């Protein structure tokens, strides 16, 4: 029952998100707004109920599975991918590597920059 | 929405969805077992092997993707609630986040802009059509978000779904090696980079490395989904003026 309550809560937030996005003409997808609203709720509430933690970790621990049906959709695009395989594969591969490298380096640099200056003032945390 | 009759519902439930759903779960189960057998070798990523198995099976039996998706949609549907569920790890990591909010915000926004800018720019330089460029633009965001954006900016949502999965796989397979070469040791930096570049598939991989890397990757994926939805349509407009075809 706990698990069911958690899933129900997730669906209620998703549905509310979908409705609000359409009503207000927002440029973001409904589930993303649902996530933001749930996050705000948890912040106000001050804790995550067990049912919700249980349902969310069940969903998130099998996250890769959820991408499989979309991945199989590749078979409907074989023609397109064959026609433009070079720009698709190179742009996808290089851009992913560039993004990963740049983000990791920026995060490392800015963390050192800001957190060091904070911990120098505030004593030694971590 | 038209109300289906009871008989229609029965026909719908009894025929193909069961098959599509079952083979998805069986293929993933086998792929996951293979992945564990290879000691979590990133090249044996369960998404890659299960997608390959399913495509081969569908081609061999002459089953169309739309028939398969009758069942596959039940799994696909869960991407929505899973996106909402990201609020929970986000909340649990919030104390860490509060300390790091400025580095996280800077890395996240740069990462999202670099991801979209470099994919559109590279595809354009390499002679890809406008449809391909737009389908690639949101590729680093999680599938439901990326598909929505792709539709909005003139890409093909279903192609974007595939590119999102390929991006995630590329990131999950290469990520840990790249971080080793770059000597990035901080789990927070690795997690943020993984989540920004390779969304849920990268996050699944990050959780296998450490729970902290996973939580930060999930956090980055959730926040970058939000940032991508807000920034990419605008960025694409800018690029249009800046790098004309």
TrEMBL record, chain A:
Alphabetized UniProt keyword annotations: Cell membrane, Membrane, Transmembrane, Transmembrane helix
Q: Which InterPro entries match?
A: LrgA/CidA
Q: What is its main location?
A: membrane
Which regions span the lipid bilayer? 20-44, 56-79, 85-107
What is this entry's stated membrane topology? Multi-pass membrane protein
Q: Where in the cell is it found?
A: Cell membrane
Tell me the protein's name: Antiholin-like protein LrgA
Extract the Pfam families matched here.
Answer: LrgA
Source domain of life is Bacteria
Q: Name one GO cellular component term.
A: plasma membrane
TrEMBL record, chain B:
Keywords, A to Z? Hydrolase, Membrane, Transmembrane, Transmembrane helix
Q: Where in the cell is it found?
A: Membrane
- Extent of the signal sequence: none
The membrane topology of this protein is: Multi-pass membrane protein
Q: Which GO terms describe its molecular function?
A: hydrolase activity
Return the GO cellular component terms, semicolon-separated: membrane
Q: Which domain of life is it from?
A: Bacteria
Its predominant location is membrane
Record-annotated membrane-spanning stretches? 12-31, 43-62, 74-91, 100-126, 156-175, 215-236
What this protein is called in its record is: LrgA-associated membrane protein LrgB
Q: Which organism is it from?
A: Marinobacter nauticus (Marinobacter hydrocarbonoclasticus)
Starting at the broadest rank, the lineage of the source organism is: Bacteria, Pseudomonadati, Pseudomonadota, Gammaproteobacteria, Pseudomonadales
